[in-house]
Structure prediction request, 282 residues.
Amino acid sequence: MIFFRIFAKKQILMKIKKILLPIAFLLLTLQLSAWGGLAHNTIAHIAQQNLTPEAEAEVARLLNGRTMVYYAMWMDNARSLPEFDFMRTWHWANVDSGFTYETMPQYPSGDVITATELAIHKLTSAAYCDSTKRVFLKILIHTIGEIHCPMHAGRSTDRGGNDHPIIWFGQPSNLHRLWDGQILDRARSWSYTEWARNLTAHVTVSDIAEMQRGTPRDWFGETVVFAHYIYKHTPQNENLSFSYIHGMRIIDGQRRTFLSVAEQQLTAGGYRLAYVLNTMFY
Prediction:
């Protein structure tokens, strides 16, 4: 009798494991597939390290002493709340093949570019109170990051790569998820501080000046170009692995890897966010 009870308990435990293990794997996959944490935190951290004393003080005042990394993902989390539903479409701007941002049909509710420009306007205007500026500073920290994510400039025809299926290390994925974070997770097992330190270690003053030229619209235009090359070199249902990350290909007239594109976007995003804030708060 005791034997049968022990056997029954083992059978129940085995069934529970069979149910819980796939769920745990799914949760892990969802966490790793977010461009969010790693990329946004890296960009915010680079920016934080390059603020002028005046900008650093004003950012700290508006964020009640918190760092920009603390709020780097605030916009993703807040958009599920009814009071922030207005910013649901502010994370991207679709640009189809043969179009530019200016020639594409615009979202009536706005996009990542109009959101960025609105945030800059509200943060530099004396007409708005600190509570409003606090919200739009959090928005700006996030949208500058989004401007540099290639699939946030992807095509409307496949919902920014969400309907562009690929196989990533033997597992079903899609182009948006790949460039939101999977490519970074496979390339390096680094924290955002390690990414930031390594990406900025050999950046010169002239490099920074070159990156900070132009406007958010100009920077988004660069991302659109990268998105074009990504589509060109990523056929649907392709089985991708390390050669996709590290393989050399011609991108924008140069021999380079897709990892170098991701690294360039993270680095530029950080220095450009710092530039925008330093220009506003002086």
Remarks:
- The first helix runs from residue 2 to 32.
